[in-house]
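Q: I'm writing a short explainer about hydrolase for a general audience and would like to include a description of its predicted shape. Could you first generate the structure from this sequence?
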Amino acid sequence: MQPMSMPGSLVEIPFDNRRIQIEYQWLRPERAQRPLVVFLHEGLGSVSMWRDFPRDFCEAGDYCGLVFSRYGYGRSTPRPHGEKWRPDFMHRQAREALPALFDALEIGPGRAHGTPWLLGHSDGGSIALIHAASFPEAVAGITVLAPHIVVEDLSVRSIAATRQAYLETDLRERLARHHADVDSAFWGWNDIWLDPEFRRWDLRPLLSGIQCPVLAVQGEDDEYGTMAQIEGIHRYAPQTTLLKLARCGHSPHRDQKDPLTLAAVRHINAYTSNLK
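A: Of course. Here's the predicted structure. Afterward I'll give you a sentence or two in plain language.
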């Protein structure tokens, strides 16, 4: 399957005392009166790394969609090679960069595009959780795929293995198709996840602040996280619905696309059935 063919546009936002450009792409903008789903990519993701899933998902639910590449990824402004992510990098994306993007694109309560639903994968799922907890009135609901709420030994081992693959296989070449500066994207993510200081990273204290409906999805064969991640979300945010998928690794939208789509569309529609 090929990446989405349409190139993303660029919008400038303020972040970290500078101006940066963010790559983004609207999906089915003619359906702007329908729920807006914003897709938050994984730690090595981008607009194109999602491939066709966001478009297919929005067509299945008759939604409008927004896909974007975070700072340092895709065609967005690359991270300078000397700049290191800090342990709070996902908090800053959720509390600073994402609100700035929503401001620039007129997304939110009372704005042109209304209150969004967030669908995040891996790091993007964690960012969705932080954003929903930090701005509870600004999110209609969230779906998180293989999210992280704590750092597990399994995650660290798999990320260390990914580092070796980047150095020794064609992984770098394959990722380079999706990023303007592939080394910036890879090492920013890999270095912080393998930093001993990051082992103390923990989202559990803020999860009780989430007020919106949550669908938390985990594959039984996920090489980057265990069921403890989504079960922990349910423990602190009991309105969470859990979906555990057999024969599924770290990417439910690829490994089990159809059952995921069915469950996530039902999740959104349960709260938006009055919309046309």
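A: For your explainer, you could say: The chain has one domain: 9-271.
Q: Perfect, that's easy to follow.
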